[in-house]
C-alpha cells in the first residue's frame, strides 16, 4: 500500500461527506488537533521515569480522545454521524485535574513555561490546545460542530497546566514565576486567578 495518493496535489483534501480546500476552517481545526496530538506524544516520551506512570497513562488516553475529537470534526455539516466525543471524557479530565491540583503547591504568581523538560513540553501542549480550541470556535461559525469537542479542549488545556506543575514537583524543579507581575494568587481569589491564567 502506498502512503501517497496524489489526490491532494491540487490543494484539496477529503473529509467525510465531500472534498474541501486544505485551508478550510474544518481542516485547520482537526489539523491543529493532530498537531497537538504530536506534542502529546512528545511529552509522553519525556515522561519515561517510573514516577510519571500515571501521567503517561493519562496522556495515552488523551491521545486516543484527541483522535476522537478530530474524527468528529472531519464530517461536513451535511454528513450524518454519531459523535465520538462525549461529556464523560471531559468529566474524567476534571477528576484528573482535581487530583493533580490537590498535590501541587499553591500558586503565588502567574507562571511561565519551563522548570523541567517534561513540564515545558506539557506547557507546549497547553498552548497548542488553546489554539486548537480557537480553531474549533471559528469552525462553529460555519455550521454544526459537536459542542463536546469544545468543552473537552477547554478542560484539556487546564489539565496540561496542572500536569506541567505536577511534573516539576516530581522532579523537584521550581515553576518559573512571572516576576514582573503582582502576587495575584492570594486568599479567596486563588482559584479564580488560576482559572484566568488558563481560561
Note down, in words, how this protein is organized.
The chain is mostly helical and 199 residues long. It has one domain (17-77, 85-198): Hypothetical Protein Ta1238, Chain: A, CATH 1.20.1200. The chain contains 6 helices and 4 strands. It has helices at residues 25-45, 53-73, 87-103, 117-140, 147-170, 190-198; strands at 12-15, 18-21, 111-112, 176-177. A two-stranded antiparallel sheet has the order 1-2. The chain has a two-stranded antiparallel sheet with strand order 3-4. The longest helix is centred in the middle third of the chain and has 24 residues, at 117-140. It is globular, with a radius of gyration of 18 Å. The termini are far apart. The model is unreliable at 188-195 (pLDDT under 50).
- Distance between the terminal alpha carbons, to the nearest Å? 44 Å
Query: What number of structural domains do the residues give?
Result: 1
Q: Could you report the average pLDDT, rounded to the nearest whole number?
A: 85
Largest beta-sheet details = 2 strands, antiparallel
CATH-defined fold name: Hypothetical Protein Ta1238, Chain: A
Element order: H for helix, E for strand? EEHHHEHHEH
Quickly give the structural class: mainly alpha
How much of the sequence lies in strands comes to 5-15%
How large is the radius of gyration? 18 Å
- Going by CATH, the architecture would be Up-down Bundle
CATH superfamily: Cobalamin adenosyltransferase-like
Main sheet strand line-up: 1-2
Shape: globular
Number of helices: 6
